[in-house]
Amino acid sequence: MKLRTKQIISKILIYAIVILGAITMLIPFFWMISTSLKSGPETIKIPPIWIPKVFRWSNYVAAWHAAPFGQYFINSIIVTVVTTVGQLFTSILAAFAFSKLKFWGKNVIFMIFLGTMMIPSEMLIIPNFVTLSRMHLINTYPALILPYLASFFTVFTLRQAFQAVPDQIYYAAKIDGASDWRFLWKILVPLSKSSITAVTVLQVISCWNAFMWPLIVTNSNAMRTLPVGLQAFTTDAGTTYQLLMAASTFVIIPMVILYLFLQKYIIAGISKAGLKG
Q1: Chain-centre distance of CA 206, in angstroms?
Q2: Does residue 51 have a pLDDT over 50?
Q3: Where is the ABC transmembrane type-1 domain (predicted)?
Q4: Are 269 and 161 spatial neighbours (Cβ–Cβ below 8 Å)?
Q5: Using one digit for the tens of pLDDT, what is the confidence trace for 19-38?
Q6: How far apart are CA 243 and CA 249, in angstroms?
Q7: Is 59 within 8 Å of 49 (Cβ atoms)?
Q8: What are the backbone dihedrals phi and psi of residue 238, each rounded to the nearest 5 degrees, phi first?
């Protein structure tokens, strides 16, 4: 009886902690949506107003027309799709080489590349900018895309997934006359679908939300992406919080929908890759 009581109490505590964590994570999103429906004075009122007296849906229309968000959306979609497809292609090829092929210095090369993951991304901003500037690519799509066509984090994740596929399958395919290229795309990639989907979604979210690099390499509205476009609501006169939150809402919604539809693949892929965090 005492053991059952302890189990019940333990479950209640676990559920309470999980619910508390969920509420804590949802509060910023609730505040964002609530603020997007407020009037200007309500956004700075103390104590803060959690639910506006009148829902001002017109804030979303005003936010959309405050900057060329249509162009920002197009730019973000182009950059996100091309970057994700390019990075996925290069990563799959590299992961296959490191997991299944045998060549001189494979482990040494892998460890060197693995060490690059310890370099802060901020340290690469200036070298990348100088390189692209000398190539006269600033304020172009290649400037937004080229530096991210390869990612060793993605290579590492897919290598772990590919290594989980038994080598016997690879040898059997080779005996049957399948080339490395055919084995990769007809057998290995389908078997690692969950891991590939996981890294794809993570890359899409990362690219969609990128701010620093697009801000640095673009200098016109014609090339800027959505996160950079949010600066339109912050001027020397102050920040228009209700419009900023309205714009932030329709910037975030596509990624939330994407994650909700594909979350099971993300969880399965990361679990198979042996990554935690």
Answers
A1: 3
A2: yes
A3: 73-262
A4: yes
A5: 998 888 888 888 888 888 88
A6: 10
A7: no
A8: 130, -170
Buried b (16+ CB within 10 A) or exposed e, 204-217: bbbbbebeebbebb
* Residue 29: partners with Cβ closer than 8 Å, 6 or more residues away: 252
pLDDT tens-digit readout, 258-269:
878 777 766 665
Q: Which two tokens stand for residue 161?
A: 């997934």
Q: What average pLDDT does the chain have?
A: 85
Cis peptide before 48 (omega within 30 of 0): no
Report field, pTM of the whole predicted structure over 0.85: no
CA dist 12 and 19 (Å) reads 10
- The sign of the CA dihedral 150, 155, 156, 157 is positive
Token pair listed for 38: 């407020």
**At a CB cut-off of 8 Å and minimum separation 6, what does 123 contact?**
none
Give first-to-last CA distance, the chain, whole Å: 37
